Amino acid sequence: MFIIDGHNLLHAICKIEENARALSEPALCGVLGTYLRLTGETAAIVFDGTGPPDKGGFEGMSNLEVLFAGLGTDADTIIEDKIKASTAPKGLTIVSSDRRLQQAAHARRAMAIKSEVFWTELQKQLSRKRRPREPSAKRQGLSQSETEQWLKVFGIEQ
User: Fold this and answer.
1) Most C-beta atoms within 10 A of its C-beta, which of 2, 28, 75, 143?
2) Which range marks the domain in which residue 95 is found?
């Protein structure tokens, strides 16, 4: 499971990509959702603040839990608490370039990956060409009438 420092990742993306300034929190979550569906992974992304009043843009994110730290705390504290509360910290991957979170991950033997590295790997995975799905007819084979038609075309008698 990934635990992602949302604004840290957004900041890293802006450093890497020129047109990333337009990437919003919901758009980032959409990209992450696509990645998670492809890889079969799960994640929680934590943003500072309360988020937009209308959180409709975050609905329907499969494999992705979207959290906002709220008032009086920050995303780093929420992520640290999640690391401490984990019963299987070795199964966590913390995505943040923040030293505080990387140290918290290492203290519990969770994996830590810098946001820039994570984004680069995510982009590689999304840009890979997927093999097209085989048509169901290929698995079912030819029908009896199709078989007879091809036998006639090739002049083969049964």
Assistant:
1) 75
2) 2-133
